[in-house]
Amino acid sequence: MEQLFLENIEVCAFTGNRPEKLPWGDDERDGRCVELKRRLEDAVRRVYRAGARRFICGMAKGCDLYFAETVLTLRDEYQGVTLEAAVPCESQARGWSPEERRRYDYILHQCDNVTVISRAYTPGCMQRRNKYMVDSSQVLIAVRTGAPGGTEQTVQYARRTGVRVIELIIEEN
Fold it and tell me: Tell me: the pLDDT tens digits for 127-145?
């Protein structure tokens, strides 16, 4: 994890890849996924120690849900931790498998706040959700494979706006 000067952090947002861009896909028992979750927990604890108490998650499949579950564990350990779901549209989880939907619904109901960006899906609702998260935070934790898409765009936007970025790079091995 790169060394960043972290202080005066109140809000931490998250961006990361979906399963189809992860080397292990949906197999969370894969050792690389287990290791990523450990690194993610380390990063979340680091920003907590720097003052973050509000965490924002975009609630997409894959890394977003890993992040949300990590924050919920932290919330059980420490007072004052809150988790906000930044949902791009009300139909975000429509079409997910029943198992994925149960996980999504469980996490969503555990959130302290839910911000819905758009009632219905629109071509730009995902980007508006990402912009909202970055604009609301002082630090962004980013799990990155380097694949083009929303994660890369969100990291670039955070850097342009001066939001600090903690990168957790996933190697293709």
Answer: 999 999 999 999 999 999 9
Domains of the chain, CATH where assigned: 11-169 (3.40.50.450)
- Report in angstroms the alpha-carbon separations of 140 from 31, 43, 153: 25, 10, 13
Hey, how many other C-beta atoms are within 10 angstroms of the C-beta on 130?
Answer: 24
Q: Mind listing the pLDDT tens digit for each residue in 61-112?
A: 999 999 999 999 999 999 899 999 999 999 999 999 999 999 999 999 999 9
| The two three-digit tokens of residue 116, written as one number | 């819905």
User: At residue 11, what is the residue type?
Assistant: V
Helix H, strand E, coil C: the string for the chain is CCCCCCCCCCEEEEEECCHHHCCCCCCCCCHHHHHHHHHHHHHHHHHHHCCCCEEEECCCCCHHHHHHHHHHHHHHHCCCCEEEEEEEECCCCCCCCHHHHHHHHHHHHHCCEEEEEECCCCCCHHHHHHHHHHHCCCEEEEEECCCCCHHHHHHHHHHHHCCEEEEEECCCC
